[in-house]
Amino acid sequence: MSVHLATQTAGYRGRFAPSPSGPLHFGSLVAAVGSYLQAKSQHGQWLLRIEDIDTPRMQANADSDIMRTLESFGLCWDGPVIYQSQRLDRYQDVFNQLQQQGLLYGCQCSRKAIQAAGGLYNGRCAAKQLTTPPLAWRLRAADVDCHFHDQVFGNQRIDAALAAEDYIVKRRDGLFSYQLVVVIDDQDQQVSEVIRGADLLSMTPRQQHLFQLLGQTAPLYGHLPLAVTAPGQKLSKQNHASALAHWPNHHSLTAALRLLGHAPPDELRQAPVTEILAWATQHWQLAKVPKQLEIRCADFA
């Protein structure tokens, strides 16, 4: 089944797009809170998308667990929840469009070979016109602009070699890549601003470029500091970050706001999450978010 979202005129539209590969952890809560507050402080909509495109990594019932956790923090989304797994036909349509435009080519290079060559793909299959599966399909990305403006960090310049790398839009196993589907989803949901973790900052030029190829205006992008246990070690499901159930909700929410530069006053530290969130919505300013890629937060490892 494919879900193709109806076009509609909208004001501010933000989104939170977790992967259901495990329960929500503190690092994800920071991204959820930041994106929620940016939307609600502007009387906008906050959408929830379940990014379940990478099926081998999904956990049964993780999506409902994530939604229950969000609701327990007062983070209630607007409109229906969108599942990427229900939009495969839509992704294939866009893939076909890009292929017909000559913007894609098949690649037979293994990850091991690419790592051995320095870690960045060098375009060696671009002129081979490969068609026999299994193949990964890459987008010709030579004209990606490595400069962009971030709503938190200001003017950014991504490494030119990374920006120009022909990246995968469909994997050898037939699964569509995050880089493709996130742009299609943001386009179809008319997302006006993306507030997310700084681990995705370097991917922004690729996504802006893909919006241009699809004849669309890219949303604004802002990136939030990552909660880390040590430099370079972000809290994530892959490194077994603890689920939020280990701590009282008011403690976790207060810690997330503190990391985002919006520490609640002392009289609210033990208040219900609805009161803390109401205060944060009233006082939220993106300019107050620390301009740090990482902030140590070992308590939530």
Automatic annotation (TrEMBL):
Motif ('HIGH' region) on chain: 18-28
Molecular functions per Gene Ontology: ligase activity
Highest taxon above the source species: Bacteria
Keyword Secreted attached: no
This protein's UniProt keywords: Aminoacyl-tRNA synthetase, ATP-binding, Ligase, Metal-binding, Nucleotide-binding, Protein biosynthesis, Zinc
Protein name, UniProt field: Glutamyl-Q tRNA(Asp) synthetase
Record family assignment: Belongs to the class-I aminoacyl-tRNA synthetase family. GluQ subfamily.
Residue span, Glutamyl/glutaminyl-tRNA synthetase class Ib catalytic domain: 13-115, 145-242
Required co-factors: Zn(2+)
Free-text function comment from the UniProt entry: Catalyzes the tRNA-independent activation of glutamate in presence of ATP and the subsequent transfer of glutamate onto a tRNA(Asp). Glutamate is transferred on the 2-amino-5-(4,5-dihydroxy-2-cyclopenten-1-yl) moiety of the queuosine in the wobble position of the QUC anticodon.
InterPro entries referenced in this protein's UniProt entry, alphabetically: Glu-Q_tRNA(Asp)_Synthase (IPR022380), Glu/Gln-tRNA-synth (IPR000924), Glu/Gln-tRNA-synth_Ib_cat-dom (IPR020058), GluQ/Sye (IPR049940), Rossmann-like_a/b/a_fold (IPR014729)
Cofactor note: Binds 1 zinc ion per subunit.
Binding residues annotated for L-glutamate, in chain numbering: R15, F16, A17, P18, S19, E51, Y178, R196
UniProt: ATP binding residues: K237
Chain span(s) of sequence motif 'KMSKS' region: 234-238
Binding site for Zn(2+): C107, C109, Y121, C125
Entry's EC annotation: 6.1.1.-
Keyword field contains Ligase: yes
